[in-house]
Amino acid sequence: MALSSLGSINVPFPMPAHVSSPRIQLGYVNMNADALHPARGASVEEIQHHLVQRQASASIADTLWTAPENQDLVSQFLNNNLTTTCAHSTDDECLPLYQKYSVQDYFFLEDYVKYKAHRLITIPTGELSALRNEANSVSSDAKYAISAGQSYVEDLHGRAEDLAEENRSIAELAYGNVLQNAASYED
Questions:
Q1: Taking the complete model, does pTM exceed 0.70, yes or no?
Q2: Whether the Cβ atoms of residue 6 and residue 136 lie closer than 8 Å to each other
């Protein structure tokens, strides 16, 4: 299930069908929302100009993976416990780590949906069409988060209790607080 495409409206930057990462999908959703709602900051033309400049120099992935200042992050990404264990182990040995990652991702998605919902109040008065589209986007993203939680329980055989708020780590709670505080400060 893909994240929202801003309701049923046509978007200037359609998401490629092969994009499965929720974080990349969120990038497309946000880029389209920014382009379609002038009050959010960037016009379609500005985004297209920036994308053309980026493509001319290098892809974002190439830039991130090859930039000397990012090599510590690349190394950490390639050598973290999840990646190395799953690369050198059986599925049964990898599953508990992947389940843990999935729970963290679920909490990220839940926090992001709450952040977007809070941001609805920043849509200017009189922009009911924009409000409707954003609310539909929040609804679609909430459905995606719910689906991720269901997939954790049904497909990865995790426990529903793992997705309870009280099971969040301190870092996960702090991240949620940062998002909510940022939404409040932007108001």
A1: no
A2: yes
Amino acid in position 11: V
CA distances from 39 to 35, 116, 123, 181 (A): 9, 15, 8, 20
> How many angstroms from the chain centroid is the CA of residue 23?
3
Contact 97, 85 (CB under 8 A): yes
How confident is the prediction along the chain (187 residues), in pLDDT tens digits per residue?
334 444 556 777 777 777 666 767 777 777 777 777 766 667 777 777 776 765 655 566 777 778 888 888 888 878 888 888 888 888 888 899 999 989 989 999 999 999 899 888 888 888 899 899 999 999 999 999 999 999 999 999 999 999 998 788 887 788 777 777 776 665 4
Q: How far apart are CA 178 and CA 170, in angstroms?
A: 12
Contacts of 134 (CB under 8 A, 6+ apart): 33, 37, 116, 119, 120, 123
Q: Are 141 and 3 in contact (CB under 8 A)?
A: yes
Tokens of 125: 């008065």
